[in-house]
Design brief:
This protein is α+β, with helices and mostly antiparallel strands and 263 residues long. It folds into 2 domains: 58 residues; 197 residues, no CATH class. It is built from 9 helices and 7 strands, in the order ααβαββαββααβαααβ. It binds a DNA duplex (14 and 14 nucleotides) through strand 2 and strand 3.
DNA sequence: TACATTTGACCACA
DNA sequence: TGTGGTCAAATGTA
């Protein structure tokens, strides 16, 4: 599981070494007049290499955002994804009505799991929560049976966008989920930068492989990345947003999942 | 007693 | 310098 990350690191180092070599080569060309014919090609290669480096770096810091809705304000505090989190801070955010809560994996010290998540209530809707996950679980709980079950279920409905959210079963053993939170699942893979090209958008498929953790988060991204390359745009985002609004206004079935993307 | 939460302080970054 | 993210001591709870 972690081997992939090590491989990415060496790939990134390799790419950056190439970038450095090309920059030096370009530097040498600067003194020549006229510029050698190969200089332009070198620039193109340089841009391409930088692009690859960015994509690799993005894989190194998986960051996924999703929005969850609780059935009541009381339930909101219990929003849970089946994994163990420990709150380590809360902060008032500029321009936000509600403070942002910071959580990290309970097994941070015992198992060195560095995953964190930030939870913030939406200004307009106190029941709606923005949850941003940083990093992937490396602890034992990442192999939680319910998470695996969910993964299977979602994989059975590829490209469907909707899938019965069976966390109810999990709720039987997870007190937090007994609160019957209405998981209006809409998922929004977050990346530090917007996709600059179709090629970069296509990298999303590779990105999915960077979520070895068996949490819904990983599955969400896999589903989302099943969208055709190049479809990760504003237009598609609005389309999913519309679907999301419809889902909320006609939310008769709890635990129903849908896709959402607004990159 | 062990673990979780709260909260003020500190730090890094833009 | 302001803001967001994290730390760590104090406090709460089972």
């Amino acid at each position: 599981m972690d081997g992939g990350y090590g491989g990415e690191k060496s790939a990134l180092a390799s790419e950056l070494a190439q970038v450095l070599a090309m920059v030096r080569e370009l530097e040498a060309c600067m003194d020549q007049d006229p510029l050698p014919a190969g200089a332009r090609e070198l620039c193109a290669e340089l841009a391409s290499s930088v692009d690859r480096s960015i994509r690799i770096a993005r894989k190194e810091t998986p960051c996924v955002r999703r929005q969850l809705r609780a059935a009541s304000v009381q339930d909101a505090a219990a929003l849970d994804d089946g994994l163990s989190w420990r709150k380590y801070g809360q902060k008032d955010i500029l321009g936000a009505k509600y403070p942002r809560a910071y959580f990290r994996c309970t097994h941070r010290h015992s198992q060195g799991c560095l995953t964190t998540k930030h939870v913030q209530r939406a200004d307009g809707d106190p029941l709606l929560h923005d949850v941003v996950y940083h990093g992937a679980h490396t602890c034992v709980q990442a192999a939680h049976p319910s998470a695996q079950q969910l993964r299977q279920e979602l994989q059975l409905q590829p490209g469907h966008g909707h899938g019965a959210h069976e966390d109810q079963d999990q709720g039987a053993s997870t007190p937090a989920l007994e609160t019957e939170c209405l998981w209006a699942g809409l998922l929004e893979p977050m990346t530090p930068y917007s996709f600059a090209s179709a090629a970069a958008a296509g990298a999303g498929a590779d990105f999915a492989g960077c979520f070895p953790l068996l949490s819904p988060t990983a599955l969400d991204w896999q589903l989302r990345s099943s969208q055709p390359a190049g479809s990760v745009g504003v237009g598609i985002g609005m389309e999913f947003e519309t679907q999301f609004e419809e889902l909320f206004t006609s939310a008769t079935e709890p635990f129903q999942w849908d896709l959402y993307a607004d990159n």
